[in-house]
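Objective 1b: paired records.
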Amino acid sequence: MAIPQDVAAPRAGSGWLARWEPENETFWEETGKRLAWRTLTLTTASLIMAFITWFVVSALVVRLPAVGFQLTTGQLFWLAAMPGLAGGSLRLVHMFLTPIWGTRAVVGWSTLSLLVPLVGWFFAVQNPATPFWLLMLLAFLAGLGGGNFSSFMPSTSLFFPKRLQGTALAIQAGVGNFGVSVVQFVTPWIIGFALLGTLGGDPLTFTRPNGETSPIWLQNATAIYVPFVALFGILSLVMLRSVPVRANFREQLDIFGSPHTWTMTSLYIMTFGGFSGLSATFPLLIRTIFSGLPGGPDPLAWAFYGPLVGSVVRVLAGPVTDKYGGAIVTHVAGIGMTACAIGVTFFTSRDMANFPIFVALMLGLFFFAGIGNASTFKQMPMLFPPRQAGGVIGFTAAIAAYGPLLFGLLFGWSFGATRSPNAVFYGLAAFFALNVVLNWWLYARRGAPHPC
């Protein structure tokens, strides 16, 4: 069956497809499947670069004080929070772009825009005298990567039939989320040698807590991704096509008349807001609580495990939601997140004996958040027709992308006021529990008014 709404004749030579009928089995097998999976592959590769750019600041800030940057703990949390402010704000723009300009233009040009913060940070970290306002500006520009999600994901939802959307969206978002782990895993290694020789700039001196020093090339943390961003951006402009589902800005505002838009936004704040917020602040949490203790950990040696767990399980949970439905899986995820948020508060005192259990419970939060990220994106296409589903996916992703900003500010306040992160975790547990009840009543219980 053809998509019945918002279909306009494509402009000649613009890269818009003349016909797209993913629910038509014959069309899907003969034409649609190959193009849909090709598009998914390229947009997912570009999304990895977007997440890398979005979260590279979280990997850099834990190193800045040790190479001579004079920054307070509050300023470090502000730097970690700033990409979240930009990512959420830019997603509110991106959610409208695909039906207006199409997949090819949006994915291609938004990917190339990532070169601005990557190159900016390349130069900024080589000079400890770089002013804080400039670091804040570059941290904000890193949020360009966060914005891309809200146009890439709605695009993917248009390319696939409903029966496969849980799988397709989970693959794209989950693999894209790997960018968070990649940047936190690769950074400690790549900054340890002269990646580009003398062309890459001089090293700074890194001073460890025990007083030992070594050369460090922080600029490598962004330089390594520049050629990949350029390649994927150019390939997107050349190879991608756009589905003929069109709507102007005003027409897309109809999603805000549905109560499901707001309930799904709350559920996605719980899952992706939790994932993104904890991904951005996990390194600083480890640094603030445990670094400096005898045998204290290197934050970047542990922090990447959280986003990795959340990303892997998001991919694996996609087919499960296609089989069992998104609502019941979201229910399980919410209960798990609530339990872990409460549990972690018992292991946040400055004692290395607490560290293994603290990490385990944090990984539990990432695990259940990853499951919920997949299941909520299965629910939305079941509650809305295709174009509206894309808009809701974009909007919920935009609001949830404020997670890094919110978590950075809240943890910074909590440590300043109470010298502990527990007040934040108590608040999260209450919010998660509220969403469990909301999802159960509307979508997951037997006899729910809107099962999905």
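Objective 1b, second protein:
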Amino acid sequence: MEDTLIYNYSGASSLVKNGALEELFLAQYSEIHKNTDTSCFFWGNVGQPFMLARCLITLSHIVRSSFSLSPFQMALLKDPIVTAGNGRLRFEGFSHCAGVYARIDVMPEGLDGEFPENGTTNVDFNQPMITALGSIRPNEKIMLSVGEKEVGLYKNEEKIIERKVPLPIKWIKGLGTVQVYLSESEKRHSFNRIQTQQLFRAMPKGVIKTDYYLIVRGNKPIFSPVKSAESVCIGGLHRLRLLEPLLPYIDSMQVFPHTHGQSATWQLYMGNIRFCFSLSRESWRGFSGEGALLDSLISEISDEWIDALDKYAYANQSFHPAKLALEENISFEKSENVTARLAAMGLLGYDLDNREFFYRRLPFKLSRIIGLNPRIKNAEKLIEDGKIEMLNNSKERTEARVVGNGVHHTVIIGKERERCTCEWFSKYQGERGPCKHILAVKKLVNI
């Protein structure tokens, strides 16, 4: 069970009816506590309860879906993560295969309540909770509380007790990677409700195994199997059908492709609620295995720096790499490494509209993150076993020979490019992060 972390909620989430008022309590789980005296992160009214309920149900469907795993693996249901801070509520989660990422942002204008403390927790989405959310009507009012409150779901004299929930380690890895990909994405298209609905109605049926491209002809967006200039590449196009339940309610949709094609993100706008939906390059590739953060995880950054930046981001609820570089008189490259490292630790998410990182601490120990990636473990073992022979190490060029299984690999690291003669690098050319040989050489010479 190395790929799962088992934990208990102290109580179940609940939707409690009190006359005409419904109160939603979201149960909390955390390995770490920023403020142990505060068990509530938000308490108040939601401006669009029906719309939020529809979004939460859609997020739950995404979390329960998989596009590359067996039915047995899919049977392990997972729970989304909720962050309260900076006047906003954010709910986020992955498909079980970690190839689809989704986040609901409830903006300050859509909330009427108090934030006693900023914090992040896991949400217990049991089936009775989904049923209760589905029963919320358009004109009903609910009070939302994020944090540990009452135990149980009280609806028609029914009570839901606590349960064990497995959390995949790939979520923790994927949450860091997808934030970096979001920060490297740019808005390409904006469509109104009618354009969006027409686009989805014309989507090919069934499971789509080949790449499709989003193109615009005149004023009409279409999905085409033929690539053209300024088109957006989409792998596993059928995964977009997870958004169909929300399409009748949206005001508009924007599309944000990654600058190097590693992801495609679709953001739906519904009044004071935004729904961010990001797809990995192909349906069989999860964000957790992309390796976008490996370079930052081997960089030498002191614990004092991490602790100071953690406190700074927690106090401001946002993080600006360029501002950090200017204020601390460090290179932009180092500030980017620090940012990626903080994202890998679960301290940062990324807001596409505001073009900035927001603070959200995952409810897991920071020491858990670095040991999760097998490439880093394998790179460290190469160093420990003395398998690296340095041939050249200068400012312009680093060259090393790495002993493999019956073969020697050559690693060359220059200012503009890094290369390795191993099969992994030959296959992916660095698109899925560096191989273990490049990582080992970089760590050894502290590049």
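The chain has three domains: 1-290+357-362, 294-356+363-370, 374-445. Residues 53 and 133 are 5 Å apart (CA to CA).
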